[in-house]
Amino acid sequence: MRCPIARSLEHVGEWWNILILRDAFRGLTRFDEFQKSLGIAPSMLTRRLNALVHAGLLARNRYCEHPPRYEYVLTDSGRDFKPILVLLQEWGNRHFSPEGASVVTINRQTGALAQPLLIDSISGLPIDDEVFTTEIRAPARNTPDTN
To answer: Nearest-5° angle of CA 114, CA 120, CA 123?
Structure first.
């Protein structure tokens, strides 16, 4: 599948995966922490953690030999998911929280509420501006090395 959205959803599309990543950004690293936070069955949590490790979003590190215990930490790829998670949270607060925002992003230094916005780093325009569109491009072809 060449669609980058479909490829991405293969790794994070299961809603448990996104909630595990959310909790990882909150500092949770251990199986029992994830289980307590999510109320998820151990077998399901095991499958979801293994899938996130396999996808390269989490790394599994042993912290105890006897019995073997592991922690799950965000990889660079996993940390790159944070803006997506923040925008998803903002979208959910705006459209699906009639009682008001229950989870918000704040500036740790000032305590001020953040107002997440996805912008184009070249023009400074918000991506939802009408000047932007999506187009499908042919994949780059590998050319043989002629050296």
So the answer is: 120
- Over residues 21-46, the pLDDT tens digits come to 999 999 999 999 999 999 999 999 99
Q: Which residues contact 37 (CB under 8 A, 6 or more apart)?
A: 23, 28
Q: Which two tokens stand for residue 144?
A: 């043989």
Other CB atoms within a 10 A radius of the CB of residue 34 amount to 20
- Of 81, 138, 85, 90, nearest in space to 113 by CA: 90
3-state helix, strand, coil in the chain (%, to 5): 40, 10, 45
Provide the Cα torsion 97, 28, 36, 61; round to 10°: 140
